[in-house]
Amino acid sequence: MTDTPGNPGGSTQAAHPCGSGPSDGSVPAIHAIIPAGGAGTRLWPLSRRHRPKFLLDLTGAGHSLLQDTVERLAPVTATTTVVTGVAHIAAVADQLPQVPRENLLAEPSPRDSMAAIGLAAAVIAHRHGRDAVVGSFAADHTVADRTAFAGAVRQAALLAEQGWVVTIGIEATGPSTAFGYIHAGDPTDVPGAPDGRRVLGFTEKPDADTAAAYLATGDYRWNAGMFVVRAGVLLDHLAELRPQLAAGIEAIAAAWDVPEREEVLAERWPALEKIAIDHAIAEPVAAAGGVATVPVSMGWNDVGGFDALTELVAPRSEGPAAGAGVLDSVDSADGADGADGADGADGADGAETVDGSAPEAPRADVRVVGSDGALIASTSGRTVVLLGVPGAVVVDTPDALLVTTPEHAQGVKGVVDALRAAGREDLL
Amino acid sequence: MTDTPGNPGGSTQAAHPCGSGPSDGSVPAIHAIIPAGGAGTRLWPLSRRHRPKFLLDLTGAGHSLLQDTVERLAPVTATTTVVTGVAHIAAVADQLPQVPRENLLAEPSPRDSMAAIGLAAAVIAHRHGRDAVVGSFAADHTVADRTAFAGAVRQAALLAEQGWVVTIGIEATGPSTAFGYIHAGDPTDVPGAPDGRRVLGFTEKPDADTAAAYLATGDYRWNAGMFVVRAGVLLDHLAELRPQLAAGIEAIAAAWDVPEREEVLAERWPALEKIAIDHAIAEPVAAAGGVATVPVSMGWNDVGGFDALTELVAPRSEGPAAGAGVLDSVDSADGADGADGADGADGADGAETVDGSAPEAPRADVRVVGSDGALIASTSGRTVVLLGVPGAVVVDTPDALLVTTPEHAQGVKGVVDALRAAGREDLL
What is the reported pTM? Predict the structure, then answer.
């Protein structure tokens, strides 16, 4: 961090940690980076390797989590770049016709979040300059209050322009042991970003007692991995902290928009270090005083499991399923089905019509008696009846059925592990 | 009851209630009558109109409840006669190749149990004489202790030979409100039938307090509708108590084995009174002192709902579903599927192979974590996972899924009623 020191000396004065950017006082639009990876194992059997969580409509709103993410960012975005696996690039393109094809970056293999976000930031730096403010946002979370979200991102962009690595600090609504926490310190006092606070450090997922103690102080927020930073600042931190990884990313980015891309990608990508951006950048830069956070309360949900999904899907107020949350299709309007059609790995659901388009899945007929607070997700089109099982979680797909409760949401991963161990790759 | 009075005067002496039969002291083999009707609504969606309970293998033993009933009776049976609806006669014939086709009586329409059992008794009387001892046994119950069952039936046959209408009195293992009760009085003191007792009366299904009071006396048994009686005695009682119904049945029976059967059946059957044998015969004859009971403890289960089924299906002791009861197929070895093939009313499961035979349904892959005491019945061949739902009941079929608990077993009928009201005849 010699060239972009993070407020050396840990001074509490409200100074930006490195040379000021080209700010004219207006809020810069950000270049959004959306890493779209991960199957969402804890949502099995709804999500699968070939039908990952971010391509699914898990809110019943008619659009996928990825589409929702892009729409949420639109008011604060100059450009959108999605980084995803080669297997999903066609489905992502189908779902995001408004995103130029050149902004969809295909990873040949997963190399963790630093490589994905770093590559996107480097490509953006080449295309838009190193002063461009980038922001990375997971493809598979939801935000209820988009105005609050946009406000926080704008403040983060102003802080980023001043050289901070900025993370959005999610208001902790309970002592969750499922998230890491951000420990916030003094205000950053940057004009236009009144909520900005210096970050004293990041924590791993705590135990319940520790989480409760965090909340009692009022200084801790959930870390949702939303980072806003100038592209140049990010790449300089990376060059300082992980020079080999930075060099590999830079080589690939330099070749991205020229004919040599595939050649360079094939040579350099597999050698990139697998590391999360939290460990590679956020933690060491925070320790050096270079990270700020913008706390926000915006109804964030990581859709991390069936407990989170149960909170997300509002119970129906009328009809035969009144009292229960129902997802009777998880195909987005623009076609998570398209993804299936492309990879043909969805068993009974993967049947295609003669013209090659995926058939519209029939809506499930869901009926509930004495089962308030239950969640039913069905992609099979069957009749599903819950009788006297309040709070149950029932996930009904053409080839697999899961019956559980929100309290056992974290156990779903173990089920998937057991299926893998039993050789049921067809179900993963 | 003038010609076959039921021990008039209520004398407690051990006398048979009407003229002695042709007993030589040996136990007469009985002519079994098995009325096979009723869809088993409380076992929906496992049982359907076109896939009734008695045709299903609900014990996992590889044979249907009907087949189990016939096998259980074999040691005490001279002949077996099944009375069933025309829609099921082919499936019954498939499942019971050992029963002569002429002993399968097809009802043109349901006229309740008195018509069904009366017709069979009358046909048997024509074929084997009025002294033949008949016994009626439901097609869809289970008995764990066949030796105890056979012993009770033999005692009942000896009592029947002496002119009694005999009912098997099931040991009440708890104060059930789902069954009617038999109130037993003094011993009948018939040689060879040491357990026989006079019946003081039958009760309707009691409330819980009344049921508990019954049990405390030691004199009450569950009424499972198993009656053993000489054919002539039964028909004489009927002629006395329901002369019009008796005349109709006699006319049909007289024509059964001659060319005029269909003509007579078409004319007389629809006019037969719809009444249960309990109301037509058992109750009035008991009031007149002509009914005896043989109490027995034999592990009887009426498979009347998912509470009963949960008790019936033993939890697996090993494998991925250890701790839960699993029915991963309900097709009997000789083919409940054959019934489907015939009526073609089973939706996705009804696909037939080119040669017209029904395909073998794939076995479900059932996995259970933290769900001891659960019951999983699956006919879909899917992977079914229960995670943290002890005692749950999950019934997974190709077109309908039910998730409930044993405590809500009686509510299943309401679900079926709601489906009918919603016009979902395809699911019934």
Answer: 0.86
